[in-house]
Amino acid sequence: MSVIEVTAKPICTMILDLAQEYSLISENQKIKSDGSDSTLPIVPGIVNQSFALELLLKFFYFAQYPECITYSDFKKAKRVPVRGHTFIDLYDKLKPETKIFLKSEYKKEFSRDLYQDLKSLGNPFMEWRYIYEKETLQHSVYIGQEVINFLGVLAHKKFNEIYPFAQKKME
Length: 171
Known about the structure:
globular, single chain, mainly alpha, 8 helices
């Protein structure tokens, strides 16, 4: 039996890396759909896609506090780390200037409202993991992937702005 050990990294680094991995896994899982009427083969893809999107929203939350490099820094600073899976709740926890920036960039890119798209996506991480409890479910995989791609690009730009500070503090 193998033991996996994870060492502390800057929280923004870890979140961004994980979001990217879950997004890639999601894409691979959605491709595996066999074309039949069964949606079951794509359920893991939807769950992983929603987790990637959740992590990207959390990235923007943590990136608002570049002085807190690790999760324990948040605890020491008595900042409440963001929790939960609902996209709208996570978005609402962002500072007003972050929301304004994301919303305006999204509008330029897609001519749609980010808040409304997040709201329309609902809470797929919770809903699709328990698909066997539902009569019917709907999810826009396409909008979900657009939001992930959009937030991913902006997250990498933001990361490049704050990373030199984070790397310096970790040394």
